[in-house]
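Protein Record: Sequence and Backbone Structure Tokens
======================================================
Tokens: labelled as protein backbone structure tokens, with as many entries as the chain has residues.
Question of interest: how does this chain fold, as expressed in backbone structure tokens?

___
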Amino acid sequence: MYRVFEALDELVTIVEEARGVPMTSGCVVPRGDVLELLDDVRDAIPQELDDAQDVLDHRDEVVSTAEAQADKSVTDARNEADRTIAAARAEAEQLLADAREQADEMVAEARAQAEQAVTAGRREYEDYVGRAQSEADRMVQAGRAAYEQSVHEGKSEQARLVADTEVVQAANTEAKRIVDEANEDAERLRSECDAYVDSRLADFEDLLGRTLRTVGKGRQQLRSPMGAPFDYEEWNPARPGVPQNGGDGGR
């Protein structure tokens, strides 16, 4: 093909440089050179056509090879994608299994701690009630003893002053006052005892309420397949501001 273009270029050059014929658009060219170049073109064209056909045939082969490689690349990519998806699915299932196992462990631990907290709360409640009852009995006995002592002193004072009417009247008034004061002291001691017992029971009621809410949240977390993380700070009975075992509250 190169020789064809080269011969054509030479023909164009010969025509452009040829001497013109006066009064016409024609020119005078060297016949031998032109014929020689035309023979070169005629001889080169079949070979160039064969070369062009070879190029076309090779192009079809290249296209076929490229298409085969493209199909292979697509198949390989699809296989690799399938392997990647399978690996990702297996990893996701493993992560899900691990998460469920960890959630089960956390729920079991929370349940054990909740049961422990309930047991500790029950013991503390019984201790509160026992001490409150003992304190109430002691206060009642002390009030009764003070009342009896006051009555005894009033009666003794009344007997001592019985000889004089005015003295007897004053003694009766004083004895009544002493008895009233003894009754007031006994009532005050009883009210203080009741207030102390009520305060201790209110503290235990608050602790038991938090513990029951914690158990409820743990059960709800157990029923949920992928629940939110359990808040240990929220349910922990030992957090600041909550009375612990043996605390005396307002005593």
About this structure: Helices lie at 2-17, 31-160, 165-223, 232-235. Residues 11 and 35 are 10 Å apart (CA to CA). The two ends are 116 Å apart (CA to CA).
